[in-house]
């Protein structure tokens, strides 16, 4: 950025810090920042604490973030707004130390993030800023209900979905779904001249490559798919799911607007949005689930953890077509159909007796819609170690699942080109034996069963 604006009387400013909310529309924290009485400097930080853990330098998630940041930048630089987006690279605490030297910052606004690292990071930032007499204000934006807003009558958190969802729905009022009219206050962004614009770093400058073929779905709400959701959701060959989960993950769409549509259109789809918040509640109240089983007794299971079998699972070469098609779809596109996710997770944990944490970590590397709470919840559900009333007896049969949900084999033939040829591998494990083995293994490890 040119030096002139940095030194011009050091205007008193508020910062809005974009994180998991990459949109100008209906953004809670941004709305409050724009109404703060200060000009607002929009900020995004490429957090090296997170980036340094990403092994794939062609990660499609970085490309998605980059493109939506570009969209925000272009919208801000529109002549009607005449602002821009400040982008920094580094550790957030170091970035804020730099910014307070350049600007007279009075307040910092952002939206809540509930993951363990984010909570520690935000507490550090808050402590630092408040020592400088700068207010750090955060808001609920990525969920309808958070933290302690949906509790049992005794004020303890729910650990079973159905009663949680009932209380969630009973608590819902029209104002919970009301949008924040940010566009009314766009004049309050910091004003820049054309010669005074912020640097917009390329992905190469932050150590990554732009993925040339990222499978980023549209942000348009597929109303017909949502309307018919319960009829099509289980069939991976159909366009039967909304594909909006990456946009919920990065906040490129509004949860309030999507929940409004879902509530009016399809209860089954609406319930899926509540599942997402349920898992976020579990993570918030039970952060141990990041590395440990929700049901502690399940940490006693003696996993086989055969590395050769795990590699075949990763590559989609197990000899079970529905499992292999799902893994190949994931590896190529960063997406896997939800029904297939359950099958491949069950196969890894139950058929191969490989620790659910191995599968969870692999999904974390590959999924475009990766979200810690949902990914962890889904994997613990598959392993039987999570929030589930009758857990370990469930062992999906990949062959019967294939006959039921892809009977015409359209899905598996899309992803397994060598299917029905001598090049397709034989099954690496026999279903009946694997089922008996896992039930016996779990039974021995879990006797006597304990609760948490």
TrEMBL record:
Please give the biological process terms from Gene Ontology that the record holds.
nucleobase-containing compound metabolic process; response to light stimulus; response to stress
Task: Write down the InterPro entries for this protein, in alphabetical order.
Answer: Crypto/Photolyase_FAD-like_sf, Crypto/Photolyase_N_sf, Cryptochr/Photolyase_FAD-bd, Cryptochrome/DNA_photolyase_1, DNA_photolyase_1_CS_C, DNA_photolyase_N, Rossmann-like_a/b/a_fold
Q: Where is this site: Electron transfer via tryptophanyl radical?
A: 303, 356, 379
Q: Which residues bind FAD?
A: 229, 241-245, 269, 272-279
SUPFAM superfamilies the record matches: Cryptochrome/photolyase FAD-binding domain, Cryptochrome/photolyase, N-terminal domain
* PROSITE patterns in the cross-refs: DNA_PHOTOLYASES_1_1 (PS00394), DNA_PHOTOLYASES_1_2 (PS00691), PHR_CRY_ALPHA_BETA (PS51645)
Cofactor(s) it depends on: FAD; (6R)-5,10-methylene-5,6,7,8-tetrahydrofolate
A single Pfam family it belongs to is DNA_photolyase
* Keyword Lyase recorded: yes
Relay the cofactor remark from the entry. Answer: Binds 1 FAD per subunit.
Q: Does the keyword Iron apply?
A: no
Q: Which UniProt keywords apply?
A: Chromophore, FAD, Flavoprotein, Lyase
What region holds the Photolyase/cryptochrome alpha/beta domain?
A: 12-144
Per the record, the similarity remark reads:
Belongs to the DNA photolyase family.
PANTHER family (UniProt xref): CRYPTOCHROME, CRYPTOCHROME CIRCADIAN CLOCK 5 ISOFORM X1
Protein name as catalogued: Deoxyribodipyrimidine photolyase
Organism expressing this protein natively: Bernardetia litoralis (strain ATCC 23117 / DSM 6794 / NBRC 15988 / NCIMB 1366 / Fx l1 / Sio-4)
């Amino acid at each position: 950025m040119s030096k002139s604006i940095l030194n011009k009387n050091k205007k008193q400013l508020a910062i809005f810090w974009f994180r998991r909310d990459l949109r100008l529309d209906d953004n809670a924290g941004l709305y409050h920042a724009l109404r703060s009485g200060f000009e607002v400097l929009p900020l995004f930080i490429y957090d090296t604490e997170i980036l340094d853990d990403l092994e794939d330098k062609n990660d499609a998630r970085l490309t998605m973030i980059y493109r939506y940041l570009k969209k925000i930048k272009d919208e801000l630089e529109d002549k009607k707004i005449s602002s821009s987006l400040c982008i920094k690279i580094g550790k957030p605490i170091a970035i804020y130390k730099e910014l307070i030297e350049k600007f007279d910052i009075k307040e910092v606004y952002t939206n809540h993030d509930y993951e363990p690292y984010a909570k520690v990071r935000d507490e550090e930032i808050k402590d630092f800023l408040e020592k400088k007499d700068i207010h750090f204000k955060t808001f609920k934006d990525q969920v309808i209900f958070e933290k302690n807003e949906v509790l049992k009558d005794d004020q303890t958190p729910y650990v079973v979905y159905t009663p949680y969802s009932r209380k969630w729905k009973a608590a819902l009022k029209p104002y919970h779904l009301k949008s924040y009219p940010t566009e009314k206050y766009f004049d309050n962004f910091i004003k820049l001249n054309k010669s005074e614009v912020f640097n917009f770093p390329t992905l190469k400058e932050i150590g990554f490559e732009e993925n040339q073929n990222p499978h980023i779905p549209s942000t348009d709400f597929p109303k017909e798919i949502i309307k018919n959701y319960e009829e099509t959701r289980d069939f991976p060959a159909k366009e039967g799911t909304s594909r909006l989960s990456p946009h919920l993950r990065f906040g490129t769409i509004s949860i309030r607007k999507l929940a409004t549509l879902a509530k009016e259109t399809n209860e089954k789809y609406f319930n899926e949005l509540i599942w997402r918040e349920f898992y976020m509640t579990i993570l918030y109240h039970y952060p141990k689930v990041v590395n440990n089983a929700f049901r502690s007794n399940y940490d006693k299971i003696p996993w086989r953890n055969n590395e050769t079998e795990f590699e075949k699972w990763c590559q989609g070469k197990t000899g079970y077509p529905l499992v292999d098609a799902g893994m190949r779809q994931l590896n190529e596109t960063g997406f896997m159909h939800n029904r297939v996710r359950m099958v491949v997770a069950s196969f890894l944990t139950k058929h191969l007796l490989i620790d659910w944490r191995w599968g969870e970590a692999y999904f974390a590397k590959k999924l475009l819609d990766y979200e810690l709470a949902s990914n962890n919840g889904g994997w613990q559900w598959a392993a039987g170690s999570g929030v589930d009333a009758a857990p370990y007896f469930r062992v999906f049969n990949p062959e019967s699942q294939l006959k039921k949900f892809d009977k015409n084999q359209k899905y598996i033939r899309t992803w397994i080109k060598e299917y029905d040829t001598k090049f397709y591998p034989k099954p690496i494990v026999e279903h009946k034996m694997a089922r008996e083995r896992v039930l016996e293994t779990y039974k021995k490890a879990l006797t006597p069963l304990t609760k948490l």
